[in-house]
Design brief:
Helix 5 packs antiparallel against helix 6. The chain contains 14 helices and 12 strands. It is about 50% helix and about 15% strand. The strands form 2 sheets. An 8-stranded mixed β-sheet has the order 6-7-8-3-9-10-12-11, with helices on both faces. A 4-stranded antiparallel β-sheet has the order 2-1-4-5, with helices on one face. The chain has about 500 residues and is of the alpha/beta class. The structure holds adenosine-5'-triphosphate and magnesium ion. The site of adenosine-5'-triphosphate has 16 residues, from strand 1, strand 2 and helix 1.
Length: about 500
């Protein structure tokens, strides 16, 4: 079985607004396998971007992560400390957005924007030290942040209960017994909160000193190791230089120039082993600009974003994401703003990079045509939930959820170029998402149960699941829309020719 590089479990995210809580993501789970592209598809407002922003740790301030975990390299990204998140974000997980202009600084030259990230961490010795202490540092920081998150959760729960009780106590119709009961329940939740607070404090007292001293010990060792490493480099350098200088002293006039060149090279190598110099950063930037298909990168390096076309700008954004050599690339509608030919080129580029760099991709789109070109697997999202997931073949040739059918019916036909059937109705209000199957209100296949009970995932095949009551053994047998069935037949026929 392929290795899972990212596991999203029971993710639930809401936004606090003046009108109420927007239930943007409602218990979403999926995982990303090494080297695959998972396409997340669904119409506007279904929660695609919110999900990807949660992975990147860039949710808006009014977002509340109510539940769930996002596991990357054994750590829950929703619980790690700010510093640790910085290390992962950008470095290990890169992101490309729909609008390349918004991720570029309009008044800074492209070259500087590409080399910036590289130069920030230019001291190799310091980086080596950081790498040597990372396990202990992360353990220490994550413990503190998890402890703090647990405390804040308990506090938020207590505050909410208190506020609700206060509101209820103002109701005039309340009997004395009722208000006594409410006051009692507030007291109880205060006690519960205080108990958690004490427990967390005790946990800190018990575990923090050991974590702290482990970190201190590792820092000391790492410092010594780095010192040895550095002095070895220095000694080797000094030895090479003195040999060369000695040979220069005895050299013939004609050899002097060659020895001087060698001296300069040895010096450069020494500096390169300590720092990433500006020249080195530029060399790498040009290399990556070439990799992402920017012609004349040397000249382009000195230009501003406005001097680039939309497609070229998106290539620059991709180049910036690649400088950190990420394992995972999250692409949120990266081609929506581009015209069709340029869109195809960028998709080809992402596919090429994925192959050559062994990247795993989460690719977000509302365009099933793009899905067909990019996906290994597909997750179909509707109203903050995944309603169906499976391989790209499962979704295109054996779709099971009425919403997937509706999406497939609405792709323009390759031959006639016309949109076959628009999805009726409008997306639901996410402050009051519909009970049961959220798509029922817009689906002619809806049954009574769909309006009250949320369907579980029914297994279609090993990797193919759909959350629709139509798959229940007792459900009446319903065929997919004719339009979709006919198209599948045609495509199958076409591909067999
Ligand atoms: N900061 C916010 N405050 C309130 N609601 C928000 C906020 N950000 C997103 N939402 C809401 O969350 C829901 C999901 O939004 P999201 O951006 O994930 O949709 P999407 O699937 O990416 O759609 P699109 O295809 O338009 O990009 C929407 O109802 C949106 O209005
Ligand atoms: Mg979006």
């Amino acid at each position: 079985m392929a290795k899972k590089v990212l596991e999203v479990k029971d993710l639930k995210i809401s936004f606090k607004t003046d009108n109420g809580f927007v239930r943007a993501v409602r218990n979403v789970s999926f995982d990303l396998e090494e080297g695959e592209t998972l396409c997340v598809v669904g119409e506007s407002g279904s929660g695609k971007s919110v999900t990807s922003k949660a992975i990147m740790g860039i949710l808006a301030n009014n977002a509340i992560v109510e539940n769930g975990s996002i596991i990357y390299e054994g750590e829950n990204l929703l619980e790690v400390s700010e510093e640790e998140f910085h290390r992962i974000r950008g470095k290990k997980i890169g992101m490309i957005f729909q609008d390349p202009l918004s991720s570029l600084n309009p008044i800074v030259k492209i070259g500087k924007q590409i080399t910036e990230a590289t130069l920030v961490n230019s001291c190799k010795i310091k980086k080596l030290f950081q790498e040597k202490i990372v396990i202990q540092l992360v353990a220490y920081r994550n413990f503190i942040s998890q402890n703090k998150i647990a405390y804040l959760k308990a506090l938020a729960k207590y505050e909410e209960e208190k506020a609700t009780a206060k509101k209820r106590l103002k109701e005039e119709s309340l009997s004395e017994a009722e208000s006594a009961a409410i006051k009692e329940s507030v007291r109880a939740s205060k006690m519960a909160y205080l108990a958690i607070k004490l427990k967390l404090k005790a946990e800190r007292k018990e575990k923090l000193p050991a974590l702290k001293s482990a970190l201190k010990k590792r820092k000391k060792e790492a410092k010594a190791e780095v010192k040895v490493y550095r002095s070895t480099l220095k000694a080797e350098y000094a030895a090479k230089i003195s040999t060369l200088k000695a040979s220069k002293a005895n050299a013939k006039e004609s050899d002097i120039e060659k020895i001087d060149q060698e001296l300069a090279l040895v010096k450069k190598e020494y500096i390169d082993s300590l720092y990433i110099t500006k020249a080195e950063a530029k060399r790498r930037a040009i290399e990556i600009m070439t990799e992402v298909g920017i012609p004349m990168p040397e000249r382009r390096f000195k230009q501003y974003p406005f001097q680039f076309s939309g497609g070229m700008r998106q290539r620059i954004v991709i180049a910036i994401a690649l400088t950190a050599d990420p394992d995972i690339l999250i692409c949120d509608e990266p081609t929506t703003a581009l015209d069709v030919t340029i869109q195809a080129q960028i998709l080809d580029l992402i596919n090429k990079l994925k192959r050559e760099r062994k990247l795993s991709c989460v690719f977000i789109t509302h365009d099933l045509g793009v899905v067909a070109n990019m996906a290994d697997r597909v997750a179909v999202m509707y109203a903050g939930k995944i309603v169906e997931y499976g391989s790209v073949n499962d979704i295109f040739y054996n779709p099971k959820h009425p919403y997937t059918w509706a999406l497939l019916s609405s792709i323009p036909d390759v031959d006639s170029k016309e949109r076959l059937e628009a999805i009726p109705g409008t997306p639901p209000d996410m402050i009051y998402p519909p009970a049961g199957d959220a798509f029922a209100l817009r689906s002619k296949y809806a049954m009574g149960i769909d309006f009250n009970h949320e369907p579980p995932f029914f297994k279609v095949s090993d990797n193919h699941y759909a959350a629709t009551w139509l798959l229940h053994p007792d459900a009446p047998k319903v065929e997919m829309p004719k339009i979709v069935a006919e198209r599948i037949e045609r495509t199958k026929g076409g591909s067999q020719q």
